[in-house]
Amino acid sequence: MNLTKHKETRWRLTFLFMVPVAFTVLFFVFTVASEHTDTRLLEVQNLSSNVGRLRTLAKDAESGERGYLLTHDDHYLLPLEQATAWLPREIHSCLTNAKEVPELTGEIQRLIAQVNKRFQEADQTLADNRRGGASAFDPARIAESQNTLNEIRRIYDDLHIKLNQKQRAYLDEQHRLARWAFGLFLIGTVVTVVVLAWLYNALVSHIRARDDAHEQIAALNDELEHRIEERTRELQRSNEELQQFAYVASHDLQEPLRTVTSFTQLLAARYKGRLDQDADEFIDYIVVASRRMTDLINGLLALVRLRKSGHPADPVAFEKLLGDAETSLQVAIRESGAHIEHGPLPALVVDQVQFLQLLQNLLSNAIKYRRKEPPVIRIEAHRESTDWRFSVRDNGQGFDQQFAERIFGLFQRLHKGSVEGTGMGLAIARKIVERHGGRIWAESTVGVGSTFYFSLPVSLETSRQEPVIRPQAVAARAE
Could you tell me where the DSSP H helices lie in 307-414? Predict the structure, then answer.
């Protein structure tokens, strides 16, 4: 339903946007057409003015010629001289404006030819008169000049009529475009007002629906938070009860298991060789299983203790932790001939006991899963942008990379028959690293060796009084 309303609102917004755009385009088209009409009208008016001035110049030439012939006074030649000076400019302007009215070009050129002819006649008459040639009142010349003027008048009248028709046509087109523009403006205004009202109602409805939805969401959030709080309290109680149960169960199991192991070992010491071979083998099976059960219980207890450790407040030097781990594993190191190297290691605010256990587990793994040659183990640390990245590299047996995630699970072992172990060491290592806000992973190649990486945030570099470890929710989620 909400999706449909959103689509309708988008369509309304699109329509509202398109309405002014459409009318803007139409106004632009009509404006361009009106400007074009105005330009053509102005050109026709200019052409009409040019034609009128050509006719006036011809009259001025006639007036100057006759005034001089009657008085022989050069002052009367002033109209002719001025007309002669203005004639080229007017002809050029007339021809320029005539290009926009090609249907009248022929008549305009005839008018220009007759005007030029009249000026030539006047110049010829004045020149002959000054030389004392033909009489100023030669009937033939007078008749020819009059015919030229009559032709100029006739052409002018025709052009004047046609140019007036052109002007009226352009004026009518202007009026028509103005009416269309006004009509479009009126329609566009009405449509815009209607669409705005439509959109306003839609927005008001949308805002009301949004407010209602927010109120519903707020109510649901309150209810959800209440349920989460209740569920969290239940999980905390269950988790505490489970931890207590695991601790008590593991602790209580040790006593009968210790009894079974002790008496089985005593039985093996006193009666080995006195019974048959099957009995000796069965006793050995019981001893090995008891020891393995003891190791598993101790591992479970170590996991439970991880959740009960306090928060450190001072930095711990990893070089010292590595030295302590080597001391704890000196027997295994001496028997295997292992060589342990390390680069510069930082001091971080971590749980000293837990990270000692972490290094012991990683070193012990590298020693246990060795090849025939003595193991070489290299521990390094590099500071990156937001983390310290540690690596523990060995030249051991290695494993298939597809099991790189599986080995960190509880009771997960890849070499169950050939190497002793409980399958809990790497699971404990992951718990320790994640409890300190980091992560752990492995890369390996079969027959070449393995590298175990773990990263810790650089915020653990400085000493602080407040807890530096992420909330227990991280560890709980990791479980």
Answer: 318-328, 330-336, 352-368
